[in-house]
Design a protein that fits this description.
alpha+beta; Nucleoside Triphosphate Pyrophosphohydrolase; 5-stranded mixed β-sheet; 4 helices; 9 strands; about 25% helix
Length: about 160
């Protein structure tokens, strides 16, 4: 199991703290993994925030359906977590902590319904695609170098590299 923690550099003491719990699905088909491709030409794993009253399993099933159109048939073992700390983008004097839990999942790939994306996901034109871990890592590195990628590149590439082992 992997565990990573990222701290924003030069983070001052902040008086408030906001915590967000997220779940992320690791779905393989042969040597390919299912990822969300953005219009910034970077990729992330399907998943998102756990809503109040939801279990991790319920949130994964919902997020996979919304972001990929596929039905999750099995939520397997938790394989890792990533904790991120940075200044909150929306609330002054607030530390934002996101804990992402990564699970091996299986889907029924025989039928894909339409996506039900959040507004920011629509703006980023999320598209589910299958690719190898090496392709996902290379795409994210290029997007990062070009300045077109999103804030999850480091987190997701570290996870992709853990999965390559």
């Amino acid at each position: 199991m992997f565990r990573k923690c990222y701290e924003q550099e030069h983070l001052p003491d902040l008086s408030k703290k906001k915590i967000r719990t997220a779940v992320r699905a690791i779905i393989f088909k042969g040597n390919q993994i299912l990822v969300e491709l953005s219009n910034g030409h970077d990729v992330k794993l399907p998943g998102g925030g756990v809503e109040t009253g939801e279990t991790h399993k319920q949130a994964l099933i919902r997020e996979i359906k919304e972001e990929t159109g596929f039905t999750c048939t099995h939520v397997g073992e938790k394989v890792g977590e990533v904790i991120e700390h940075h200044r909150d983008l929306f609330e002054e004097d607030t530390l934002f902590e996101m804990i992402s839990h990564y699970y091996i999942c299986e889907i029924d790939a025989s039928y894909q319904s339409s996506l039900k994306l959040d507004q920011y996901e629509e703006e980023l034109d999320f598209t589910p695609v299958w690719m190898t871990l090496k392709e996902a890592i290379a795409l994210n590195k290029t997007a990062d170098e070009n300045g077109t990628g999103n804030g999850w590149i480091r987190r997701e590439n570290d996870v992709f590299e853990c999965l390559e082992v």
